[in-house]
């Protein structure tokens, strides 16, 4: 079974290979190499700018738009990776966090009502 975080990770590796076609390491090294490459790029951006919002990253937006982020951010470890990577624009994430927060509040309050 491939979860949404697996798809995100596959997209990150794929994007790295598109941007660095000369890379020829082993598959085992691919994720750590991709992480290191994007991490280096992050230092060049203004604060708050994601990779997809840069000139290099902009062309990949249509593919990343298909990610169902609500399934990624519902797991704490995955949400932390997404935040650390800073590939996804903050406004995409804010709307998903807001949606998830309201869903959680609704579930909490439905439970409270059930105990009356």
Compose a concise summary of this entry.
This protein has 116 residues and is an all-alpha fold. It contains six helices and no strands.
Describe the fold and architecture.
By secondary structure, this protein is an all-alpha fold. It has six helices and no strands. It has helices at residues 4-19, 27-42, 61-64, 69-72, 76-85, 90-114. α1 (4-19) crosses α2 (27-42). InterPro entries: Gcl-like. Keywords: Developmental protein.
Strand/helix succession: HHHHHH
Please count the helical segments.
6
Structural class, judged by helices and strands? mainly alpha
The share of residues in extended strands comes to under 5%
Q: Approximately how much helix is present in the residues?
A: 55-70%
Rg, Cα atoms, Å: 17 Å
β-strand number: 0
Main pleated sheet: none
What integer is the average pLDDT?
90
For this structure, the quaternary state is single chain
Termini separation (Å)? 40 Å
Spans where pLDDT lies below 50 across 5 or more residues: none
Number of domains: 1
Overall shape = elongated
């Amino acid at each position: 079974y491939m979860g949404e975080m697996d798809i995100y990770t596959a997209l990150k590796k794929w994007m790295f290979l598109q941007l660095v076609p000369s890379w020829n390491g082993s598959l085992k090294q691919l994720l750590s190499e991709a992480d290191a490459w994007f991490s280096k790029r992050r230092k060049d951006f203004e604060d708050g700018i994601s990779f997809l919002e840069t000139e290099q990253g902009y062309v990949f937006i249509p593919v990343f738009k298909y990610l169902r982020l609500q399934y990624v951010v519902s797991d704490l470890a995955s949400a932390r990776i997404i935040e650390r990577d800073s590939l996804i624009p903050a406004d995409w994430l804010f709307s998903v966090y807001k949606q998830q927060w309201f869903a959680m509040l609704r579930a909490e309050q439905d439970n409270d009502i059930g105990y009356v």
